[in-house]
Write a structure and sequence with these properties.
This protein has about 475 residues and is of the alpha+beta class. It has twelve helices and ten strands. A hairpin with a 2-residue loop joins strand 3 and strand 4. The longest helix is centred in the last third of the chain and has 17 residues. It is globular, with a radius of gyration of 25 Å. It binds protoporphyrin IX containing FE (HEM).
């Protein structure tokens, strides 16, 4: 086989890749050295803006296979028959740290799935936690500012972290989750994924159901203690990436079983708490898990930058039969992601291989923009309607309409009979074993005791007291003991 030739980006052969061209031996460099200029200039442009959250991540391809009939609830084509397989790409991530942070940290994990369906790409952009810290998107930038590095100290600051939570009683449930054992998964393979939000499914008769997604790991849940994680984060900052990459390379393909909880749409208004509140789970006793299928990851990406860094998931990429609920957080996210992609990757990010539809083609009149490479051309018209056989609308909404009442305004969510911010945090605490509770209390106290202001500590303690008197008392004692040390 003949040796392949190194070329410039325009394909011309490169004569010397070790010595820059100089004016005479030992002289200054020449502007005419195209290879050197191109190499340095390209290098300067290798980085793009990192994701504002979930910057660190790992991805893999695989498939989703339907195992159970759900056609009574959704007419989504990729869920239309048992045995049906759909190609997927999944990106896992940590949330708060920037690129260069460590994987083994106490932080939620992202669990973003792109289903390349025959009716377009369906993105389910979830986390490894069934709930979230806040319930209104207007609080999201403040929340993230409080958890990421402080603009002056350049470090994550317990003062900021806990001050935000002091003002956000609705975070108590998720804080309890995060500070518990599941707050540090051992790897991406050993954790569940959740859609977290309530979404909407519509069946072929037009009947609507509200739905929550649960991907249960078939590897079993495994977590790290705070001490073990701190050690691992130092030894192998890429521990999650290493684990996923090597497992798939070894042929040990991780899988998750997808279950859903389904609520007939008519039951939402009278449910005892707001079913669109992202800080709450739906008890399984009310809405049991129904199995849907199995997701398997079996192929590593060839190029992490091209396929993982440039992957773009957006909660508003729905397919027929699936749509949004009135969950305010979800509604905010329907805007935020595609906007982030246009900033981070450009308007034509949907033409990148990892983001483009695979089982169908995109047919529309969007044109041009930076880095456009789509093939629509020649006599294809760039306006609609037209008389030239261009793609046309279907007239069929993707999902059922959502009922609305009342006036516009900055309203709190509609009140249901049991809508307080603490009872599910208390239920989660009471579900834990004695050892788990002790670790939870120690983790919270370890962070909260570092806060400099007493009023911030008091407000946080009040939340744990409201969740469960024993929980509050133990955290308070542990914080006091640490501060007296
Ligand atoms: C990433 C915004 C809440 C899961 C992102 C990104 C933005 C964002 C701007 C970066 C996107 C990119 O550059 O590609 C928001 C806003 C939220 C919110 C405004 C609340 C209003 C949530 C919630 C979840 C979640 C509740 C989980 C249920 C994720 C995941 C990623 C992400 C998994 C990484 C996606 C990937 O792997 O590319 N979020 N987010 N976010 N968010 Fe959110």
């Amino acid at each position: 086989m003949s040796q392949r030739v190194l070329t410039t980006e325009s394909g011309a052969p490169v004569a010397d890749n070790q010595n820059s061209a100089t004016a005479g031996v030992g002289g200054p460099l020449l502007l005419q050295d195209q290879h050197l200029l191109e190499k340095l200039a390209r290098f300067n442009r290798e980085r793009i803006p990192e994701r504002v959250v979930h910057a660190r991540g790992s991805g893999a391809y695989g498939h989703f296979e339907v195992t159970d009939d759900v056609t009574g609830f959704t007419h989504a084509d990729f869920l239309s028959e048992t045995g049906k397989r759909t190609e997927v790409f999944l990106r896992f991530s940590t949330v708060a740290d920037s690129l260069g942070g460590a994987d083994a940290v106490r932080d939620p994990r992202g669990f973003a799935v792109k289903f390349y369906t025959g009716e377009g790409n369906y993105d389910l952009v979830g986390n490894n936690t069934p709930v979230f810290f806040i319930k209104d998107p207007v609080k999201f930038p403040d929340f993230i500012h409080s958890q990421k590095r402080d603009p002056f100290t350049g470090r994550q600051e317990p003062d900021n972290v806990w001050d935000f939570w002091a003002h956000s009683p609705e975070a108590t449930h998720q804080v309890t989750w995060l500070m518990g054992d599941r707050g540090i998964p051992a790897s991406y393979r050993h954790m569940n994924g959740y859609g977290s939000h309530t979404y909407q499914w519509t069946n072929s008769r037009g009947e609507a159901f509200f739905v929550k997604y649960h991907f249960k790991t078939n590897q079993g849940i495994r977590c790290l203690s705070s001490e073990h994680a701190a050690e691992l984060a130092g030894k192998d900052p890429n521990s999650h990436q290493t684990d996923l990459l090597q497992a798939i390379e070894r042929g040990v393909h991780p899988s998750w079983t997808l279950y859903v909880q389904l609520m007939p749409a008519a039951e939402a208004a009278d449910y005892r708490f707001n079913p669109f509140d992202l800080t709450k789970v739906w008890p399984h006793a009310d809405y049991p898990l129904k199995r849907v299928g199995r997701l398997v990851l079996d192929r590593n990406p060839d190029n992490v930058f091209a396929e993982v860094e440039q992957a773009a998931f957006s909660p508003n990429n729905f397919v027929p039969g699936i749509g949004p609920s009135p969950d305010k957080m979800l509604q905010g996210r329907l805007f935020a992601y595609a906007d982030a992609h246009r900033y981070r990757l450009g308007v034509n990010h949907t033409q990148l291989a990892v983001n483009a539809p695979r089982a169908t083609t995109a047919e529309n009149y969007g044109r041009d923009g930076l880095m456009a490479s789509n093939p629509q051309g020649r006599y294809a018209k760039n306006y609609e309607p037209n008389s030239y056989d261009g793609p046309v609308e279907t007239g069929r909404p993707l999902s059922a309409p959502l009922a609305v009442t009342g006036h516009t305004g900055t309203h709190a969510a509609p009140l249901h009979t049991k809508d307080d911010d603490f009872f599910q945090a208390g239920e989660l605490y009471r579900l834990m074993s004695a050892e788990e509770r002790s670790r939870l209390v120690a983790n919270i106290a370890g962070g909260l005791s570092q806060v400099s202001r007493d009023d911030v500590i008091e407000k946080n303690l009040a939340h744990f007291h409201a969740a469960d008197p024993d929980y509050g008392r133990r955290v308070e004692e542990a914080v006091r003991a640490l501060r007296e040390d």
